[in-house]
Every structure is written in structure tokens, then in C-alpha cells.
Queue: 3 jobs
Job 1
Amino acid sequence: MQERDVDVAIIGAGTAGLSAWQTARQYSDEVVLIEAGEPGTTCARVGCMPSKLLIAAAESAHQAREAVGFGIRIGDLGIDGKAVMARVRRQRDAFVESVLDSMQRIEPRNRIKGHARFEAPHTLRVGDDLRLHARTIIIATGSRPHRPDALHPAGDRLVDSDGVFEWEDLPESVAVFGPGIVGLELGQALARLGVRLRMFGKSGSLGPFGDQALRDYAERAFNDEFYLDPAAQIETIARDGDQVAITFIERDSGQRLTERFDYLLAATGRRPNLDRLDLENAGLALDDKGVPFYNRFTMQCRRADGEGDDGHIFIAGDASQELPLLHEANQQGRIAGHNAGRYPERRAGRRSTPLSIAFTDPQMATVGLSRDEAADRFGCDGVAEGGASFEDQGRAVVMRQNRGLMRLYAEHGSGQFLGAELFGPRVEHIAHLLAWALEQKMGIERMLEMPFYHPVLEEGLRSALRDLNSTLLQGPAMTERCLEYGPGG
Ligand SMILES: Cc1cc2nc3c(=O)[nH]c(=O)nc-3n(C[C@H](O)[C@H](O)[C@H](O)COP(=O)(O)OP(=O)(O)OC[C@H]3O[C@@H](n4cnc5c(N)ncnc54)[C@H](O)[C@@H]3O)c2cc1C
Ligand SMILES: NC(=O)c1ccc[n+]([C@@H]2O[C@H](COP(=O)([O-])OP(=O)(O)OC[C@H]3O[C@@H](n4cnc5c(N)ncnc54)[C@H](O)[C@@H]3O)[C@@H](O)[C@H]2O)c1
């Protein structure tokens, strides 16, 4: 058994692990990055990038179909599934390659291949042949798709998001289980690429929305394109020839139907990769799901033997189960890297405004506090709500993308902006403006003083802000758009 002493050992070479390495390396030459699987990060291999590549192809098909609404005839639409998947995989490989290139900056002796697990609080066993003694350790092991037992009867026809990007051709049909962000992004893209699709959820949840009005609106909008039942009644799932047969109660007719699909796509959430780390040897306090308690400003895990969070083990990225998003993994990795590098000194890192965007059409986004979180913090009477529809918004009408709704929350009295849920065309941009406004701690009146061009989608945001301002009793209600701001403004 080879033994080695290091200053910082980072488990997992994903986005969080790489950003942790980059920062911890500023403090020591002895910072090792351990990777058990294929390097290249979840984001580039099976996450953000390949999913957006599939969505881009689907958008193109959708625009071609929609062109007729502008008086433009394109003729018969042909979708070459093999070519679509070839481009997805080719571009995906290029993104992975760029990550691998940047990893070359890490000295080979500090890149360790193998599965790491704890033998003791300061000792990691990597594979069969290496034992590492580390002054500090960062857990950046990411997450993996969860496949509930109920879906296992689908056998080898059961895939998850990792499997989709290995397809060499588009299937004829897919049943998607889970209308979360992964299910909606991939499901809508597949439907737009001509795949026969049904989407089944459980308990009524839909994407990231907490606001019932947005959930209802989004459910209707998606159902215009493909079958979606967020609270589905599934009776049986069985392997049938080369397919999977699903018996379910159809949402509107109440009929019992049995349909066959090429694949059952499990988009039923993700679980942190903490179960094979032998965390019981790490001396950490764990919650009932086995996730370490940690301080979100230092990313320092709490020791099992005390109340404090002053241990030498840190956590970052999807493994922390806080907000499984790329920019969060990056930020958490940076904080963990700095604190592990300069341990035992520690500093609180900066955590930015919560921001999440689903690349569906219309897009879904959440910023800052949800309505329930705002009510918990300020009391129900302390929170004002306002909103606007995209249905009559000028620029959205021009583009034939006038579907969607915005809900904004602010604090009564101060007029402080608190958060928003958005469903609408390209709301990724409005979500960023709102996140930046939150970072600046802006009030609704000040946000209304910002410039708004004409005609742009952001004028819809102005309508929502006006509505919220009048609920706050800080300004007049919006009466008629055109009179004040020009058509649709
Ligand atoms: C389909 C999909 C689409 C997504 N789209 C977006 C998006 O558009 N925008 C966005 O912000 N986020 C998106 N995400 C989420 C985003 O990809 C993740 O939040 C992010 O990649 C997490 O990074 P990470 O470093 O925590 O984990 P990872 O990149 O998964 O890295 C963890 C690494 O640890 C390794 N590892 C695990 N256990 C061990 C061990 N014991 N020993 C050694 N190595 C180990 C793993 O092999 C892995 O390489 C998407 C996710 C999915 C699945
Ligand atoms: N655009 C993005 O930023 C993006 C894209 C994809 C993923 N992500 C990240 O990945 C995380 C995981 O996404 P996800 O969609 O896999 O998980 P999720 O937890 O958001 O959604 C899972 C969905 O599956 C449903 N579900 C659970 N068990 C089920 C069952 N047996 N049958 C039917 N439905 C079931 C849940 O009710 C929920 O609606 C997200 O929270 C997000 O942070 C981000």
C-alpha cells in the first residue's frame, strides 16, 4: 500500500472539485484531485451542455413548424434523428475536451484516478493501493440520477438523463416519469423532435414553481404540446417485447389505457454521491439522509463530536444537496477551496441570490425567495404580490410567443423586492435583471426608475412591477398600457 501526505484532498473532479482545486492550490503545492469516473464534469458530459444541445435542435424544428404562423411556408419538415444525436454528441465531446484540456494545468502527480472513501477523519483510501493522509478534505462528489424501485419493471428499457445522450438515433416513443426540470427540458425537446411522448408526475409538482397560479398555467401550456399529468395514476409498468407497457388512467377522460413506449425515462430527481464514501469513518454529524450538516458560508462540515462546525472537512456542489446548479457548484467549490487551503483560519464566503432557469419554452425561472419563503420570513401580511401576463405583451405578440405569467414579491412598508417566479418567453434575461436587482437590494420604486426600451419583453416586467407597486400602495395601478408607453408596452 502506497502512503502519501497531502495538504488538501478533493474528492471529485467535477465543477465544484475543479474550482476548489484552483483556489486551494493558491495556498499549497500539495493539493490533490481524486476522480473515480470519467473526467470531464457532469455539466459537460451529461448535464447542462448536452441537454441544451438537444433543446437547440428541438427549437429549430419548432421554429420551422411555427413559421407558417408568419405566412412563411417551409414545406415538409424532416427530422433526421441520427444527425440530431450525432451533433449533440459531437458538440458535447468538444465541451468535454475543453474541460480535459484545462485539467492539464493540474500537475499529473496531483491528479489521482480512483474511488476515494474515508478510513478515518484525516485518512482516505483511494482504490486498493493508495492511502492518503490529508490535513483537510473537500467532498465534491456530485449527484447521480435516482431511479425509484417502482420503475424497475421497465428493465433495460429504463433510461435516465445520462443514457439519453448516448442514443445514436431518436426513439419513436418515450414515457417520461418526473416533470421536474430535467423531465420538462428533455421531454419537451424530444416531443418537438417528433418523439411520441407522455409525461407522468406524482403529487402535482411541476418544475421549480411553488406558486399554484404558475403551476396551473404551465401545466396547461405544456399540455398544448404533449400529454402531461403531474399527478398521474400509474397502474402497472411491464417489459413487453422490445418495449415497456404502461397502464395508466388518462387525466381528462378517466379511461384506463395501456400504451407501449420504446423507453421509460426516469427524470425523478438526483441523489448525492455520499453513500459510497464510508462517511461513518469521517467523524461528521449527518442528517437522516446521510448528508453532512455544514455551514453554507464556509462550506465546513460539522463534527459529530461537537456542536461547532470547525472541522477540517468541507463539502461543495451537488453533494451538498443545497442548490444542484452549476454556478452554485462553482461558488461553493471556491469557498471550500479557500477555507480548506488556509485552514484552520476560515472566512465566510459570498453566497449569491438564488437563481434557477429551466430552458423549456416558455422558460421557467425562480429568483430570490419564493412566496412561501417570503411569507415565512416576513409573515403573510408582510408580503405584497404583483404580476403580469405575457399574453398581451407587445413584443411577445410580435414574436408569436405571447404565453406566460410573472409573479413578483416584495416587502410591505419598505417596498424591498424579495423574489419572483417567471414563466414566459426568454425569461432567462428578466431573471438575471431581477437577480441583479436583488443583489443591489433595490426597492420596487427604484426598479421602476430603470430604463425600459420599446418594444422589448422587459416592458412586461415593468407592468408586473407597476402592479406590485400599487399593491404596496406606493404607486398608481397600471391602467392602459398603450396610453402610457406605446403599443403593448
Ligand atoms: C440533464 C441535466 C441538465 C442540467 N442542466 C443544468 C443547467 O442548464 N444549468 C445549471 O446550472 N445546472 C444544470 N444541471 C446541474 C449541473 O450539471 C450540476 O449542478 C453540476 O454539474 C454539479 O457539479 P458537481 O461538481 O457538484 O458534480 P459533478 O460534476 O458530478 O462532479 C462530481 C465528480 O465526483 C466524482 N466522484 C463521485 N464519488 C467519488 C468518489 N468516491 N471518489 C472519487 N470521485 C468521485 C464523480 O465521478 C464526478 O466526476 C443539469 C444537470 C443535469 C443532470
Ligand atoms: N436548467 C437547469 O438549470 C437544470 C436543468 C436540469 C437539471 N437541473 C438541476 O438538477 C436537479 C435535478 O432535476 P430533476 O428534474 O431530476 O429533479 P427534481 O427533483 O427537480 O424533479 C423530479 C420530479 O420527479 C417527480 N417524481 C419523483 N418520483 C416520481 C415517480 N415515481 N413518478 C413520477 N414522478 C416522480 C417529482 O415529483 C418531481 O416533479 C434540479 O433540481 C436542478 O437543480 C438544472
Note: The chain has a mean pLDDT of 95.
Job 2
Amino acid sequence: MAPPKYLTGDKAGIEEFLSRFDVFLFDCDGVLWSGDHLFPHVPETIEMLRSKGKRLVFVTNNSTKSRADYKKKFDQMGIPAEVEEVFGSSYSAAVYIARILKLPAPKNKVFVLGESGVEQELDAEGVRYCGGTDPAFRRDIEPEDFINIANGSALDPEVGIVLAGLDFHLNYLKMSVAFQYLQRGAVFLATNIDSSLPMAHSLFPGAASAGAGVAKAIGKEPLSLGKPSQAMMDAVEGKFQFDRSRTCMVGDRMNTDIQFGIDGKLGGTLAVLTGVSKKEDFLAEDAQTVPTAYIDSLGSLLG
Ligand SMILES: O=C(O)[C@H](O)[C@H](O)COP(=O)(O)O
Ligand SMILES: [Mg+2]
């Protein structure tokens, strides 16, 4: 595997690298921002790429927000972007459920472990759901809950899918209801399998951590619809129609972003060192996932 090219400070190298691609798929957390902290020169860099006629697509695994929510965040942070350019894991999961899985009614409702981003995208695809942000689930489990969950009186008979995403309000009650639906044959899906979440310049439990308890209980892993899933790549390509050989994936995480680009046989991948992965992760002799090139921060592309 060719060693990745280090581009920071290399004006000619950056020009040559950018000239290879017409389309850039951008990760968000750890590349554009860390939570509500915008990294330096991100708006200018996005502007620079647009001025060179490059097409941009924002492909995030963060399922807590919908495409509309991301448009608001882009506007708040002064990043020039359109809602149509966003393709999140919550949208990917909703499209998969509505247009590919297509379980027969009435047993096609989704029990959500996640935040409003998932609910909004399910709504947009006309998929019914329960759980999620419903305040009825934001409480401790009570003795009678065990009985009502076990005898099914607390369950919705139309639930046929359990969808696990990043859930900041996860608790034992929600996990117990999800586990019960899975024991009764529900399909087990996840928006994404990131083990950690880059926030406030540190790391927090990721979406996979949120679903891990239920996965352990049922003894199987969910099917993930986020990066590096090629079901997501096919959906992104289907929506944005691009030549993979002229497309580059930009990300901060090796086992999601960069693997997504490599498995998708894209023309190249660019690692940014402001998020989860460190350069030691891909410069190591036995590194499994190696990007085409890397930079200290997205703003380094300004040279
Ligand atoms: O736990 C998560 O869901 C991820 O850490 C987070 O969503 C990553 O988002 P991305 O870097 O793909 O924008
Ligand atoms: Mg990221």
C-alpha cells in the first residue's frame, strides 16, 4: 500500500491533488467542526473548492440531526451549503427502510433508539415509528414495566424494526423494550457503528456504544446503514450521480470515512487530523486502512 502523501504546506501538492477530483464527499464531525466548535478556515476552504467548480456532498454518520437540521447548523456556522447536499445516516436508514426493506404493513413500524434527526427522516419517507424522543420513555423502569413488557401489553404490535442510532437519552427501559421487539422477530438496524463521537475536542460514546447493550442482549449486531456501508455509497451515488474515479472522500476516521471511500473504489481519500484518527493509526506498518493523502486540518487546503 502506497504511503499517504502529506499535503499541509505543500501548495503544488495540494493543487495537483485537488485537480484529480470533481466531487468531494465531506464528513462533518471531526472535519468541519467538533460539536459546536467550527475548525479554523472551514467556510473559506469550502468557498475555495466551490470557486474551482468542485461539487460537494456532506456525508455524515451523525443521526441526531436531519438534513434540515444540518442546513441550519451550516447557516449558523457560515458554511456555504445547501440542504440538498446533505446525506446523513438517518436519511440513509429511512431510505433503506422505506424503499428497500419495505416490510408489509401493518408490521412495518420502527422502534427508535435515537434522537429527532432519525424521526424527521422517517417522517420524510412516510415511515411510522415510536420510541425515540417520546418523553414516555425518559424515565426509570418500574416493577410493573417488567410485567407489561413481557406480556406485550406495553408493546406496539405493529413494530417490525428496531433502529439504533446515537441516543443521548438511552436508558434501561428503552433497551428492554427494544430487546423485547427483537426477541419477537423485529429486524435489527443501525444508522451507524461509530464507537466514539468527537465533541468539545474530546471523545464521547458513539452510536455503536448506544446500541451495544441491546446487541449484546440479543446476541447479534445490527445491519448498519452508515459509513462504511456500501449500501450508503450506492444511495449517495444514486442521488448525486458522480464518476467514482473523480471523487474523493474527506474524513477524520479510518474505519468509517476512509474505509467508505476505499471500499467504494473512489479515486481517492483524504484524512484530516482534527478528529478521531491520529496519523500513527495509518502510518503504522500494519495499518489496515490507509488514505491517499492527509492534512493537519481542512483549512490546510488553502495552502
Ligand atoms: O457516534 C456517532 O454517531 C459518530 O461519532 C458521529 O456521528 C460521526 O459523525 P461524522 O463524523 O460521520 O460526521
Ligand atoms: Mg467524522
Note: Residues 136 and 174 are 10 Å apart (CA to CA).
Job 3
Amino acid sequence: MKEYLGMTLNEFIIRRQSDFKYATGELSRLLSHIGVAAKIVNREVNKAGLVDILGEVGTVNTQGEAQQKLDVYADSQFIHALRASGEVCGMASEEDDNIVTFDNVLANDGKYIVCIDPLDGSSNIDVNVSIGTIFSIYRRISERGHKAEEKDFLQEGLKQVAGGYVIYGSSTMLVYTTGRGVNGFTLDPSIGEFCLSHADIRTPESGAIYSINEGYYLKFEDAIKKYIKYTQEVDKQTKRPYKARYIGSLVADFHRNLLKGGIYIYPATADAPNGKLRLLYEANPLAFVVEQAGGMAINGKDRILDMKPQDLHQRTPLIIGSTNMVNKVMEFIENK
Ligand SMILES: O=P(O)(O)OC[C@H]1O[C@](O)(COP(=O)(O)O)[C@@H](O)[C@@H]1O
Ligand SMILES: [Mg+2]
Ligand SMILES: [Mg+2]
């Protein structure tokens, strides 16, 4: 794979088209349209303080969260790009209560649906901290030629044909998998192209970083409290105490841990028994990526990718990262 380093995203997609089980170019086109929308969002993120894109819109999304201007802007850019691709019959987004369909013949004939978190890390938008976009792609199961249906979106994560994220950080990267490994592309502003910079990403089996919002410590179940204590004990052999790192943008915490080894935990709490993060457009795509990179993702009981979604905006506890670390948390949960 190293021989592809520096190759643009589009060249890479076309060259690796044989990856796609049903390879007829549609998924290639769809992925490159996601790349285009990411570049447009990146352009606004980079100059956020200079344009009227910071702050709240004044509306709340279906989860009761105040929508940031950039949440809504990013949502509209991805809706536009997915409609323009002609490959997508519908989209589920954190910022839209219901399925977004595109009501034109071409789109209704689209083979794919997309679940998306257009802007992840909304609490960090105004303070110039890394944020991202998370996406998940499935083949529709409803009949082509008609609007997408809810059943198209309530498929298990293991049925994804592609999953990934964009991180708008010190550099902008797009990382994705189609089920044959994970590759990362860095946006080269001088040519305006995503170029392969991280080929065949593998996450270490063990790491020394843990990411959890300890501000909720008192609300965590005992097993999670015990795991946090375990991470802080001194033990050279297992590189403990681990470093605590929590950016508060899931994409950024996940990306760091993916490359360096580590664990991200957003558990159930006393007042949020299903945690905070959303199964369809946060947990599932990152679980697909981490498993393809050799890691693990669970909800405290089951594998995330085996979960059968019941609702578009369903939440789930998420424990994700290096295999040995996720297994350790599971040990604490099972021995509680
Ligand atoms: O502030 P908390 O409760 O730690 O939550 C932070 C988490 O919430 C999120 O911001 C939720 O995602 P959105 O910003 O897309 O709503 C994650 O990115 C992040 O990891
Ligand atoms: Mg999010
Ligand atoms: Mg979001």
C-alpha cells in the first residue's frame, strides 16, 4: 500500500475500486462527493472567526441540543453533495429530525443511504479546537426507484459498505474504510486535494492513553470507576499510570487513540442510561474503522457492529480503541 502514498483520494478510490463488492463506480463517486463537501466545510472552519459562522443558530435539534451555525452549514453542504452525487436515495443526520430524501428520479434510484454527523465536537467550534464529520454508508434494502425508507437506516453496523470521518485539525484529514483496511488522506491546501498520507492504518493492541470525561465520575457505574482507578495505578509493565487525554471532540479523541493506541469511553451514566453518543452516525462508523484497524468497539455488553438499531437518533454507550484496553474494561464490567 505504501506505493500509493501521495496519491489523491480520487485516484486511490478508482485504483482500489475492486475493493467494492458491487463495484460499478457508484460508491467511488459517492466517496469523492463526500471529499468535496469536506473541503467546502474545511474552508469555512479555517476562517471561522472571520465569517459569520460561529455561535448558535437559535434552534435545537431532535436531541434537544442547541444547533451551532457550523452544524447547520455543514449539514447543508453534505445534503447538497449527496444529492449531487446521484447515488444516494436518503440521508440520516444528527441535525435533521427525520430522514432527508431528495425527491428526484435520479436520487430515488440511488443504491446507497448515508448516516452522518455533519459536525462533531460542536462544543469546540468557537474555541478553535479540532472538530470533525463522521459518516457511514449502506446499500439500501428498500426497492430502487422509490424514496428511501426508515428500514434502510436501521441496519446493523456490520452491514456498512463504508465508514469514516474527517478531522478539521492542525491539518485536515479524511480517514475511511470499505472493509479492506483503513487509509488516511491529508488535505494539501496547495492543490486542494486529499492525498494518501497514512496507508493501511493499524491501531496498537495496547496503549497508554485513556479518554473519558471524568467530570461525570460520580455518575459512572462502579466498573468504570474501578477501570479509571486501574489506569492511575503505577505499573511499569503495562505503562501505567496512563495519560488522561480528553479533547471533547469524539473524532479528535478517537483519531489520536487510533494512531497512538488508547481507549475512549463514553459510558452510560445514572441520568443517561444509554450514554450520549449516537449509534448510526457516531458509534457505527468509528467501530467499523477501529475493527478494520485491529481494534475493538463495544457498548459495555455487546459488539457495537452487532447492535440492531431501533431509532434514527438512538444513543449507545461507547467503549472503543485498542483491543487489550477494551477487553480490560470488559473484565471490570463482567467481574462487578
Ligand atoms: O461534553 P461531553 O459530555 O464530554 O461530550 C463530548 C462528546 O459529545 C460530542 O460533542 C457529541 O457530538 P456532537 O458535537 O456531534 O453533538 C462528541 O464529539 C464528544 O466526544
Ligand atoms: Mg458528534
Ligand atoms: Mg454533531
Note: The CA atoms of residues 94 and 117 lie 5 Å apart.
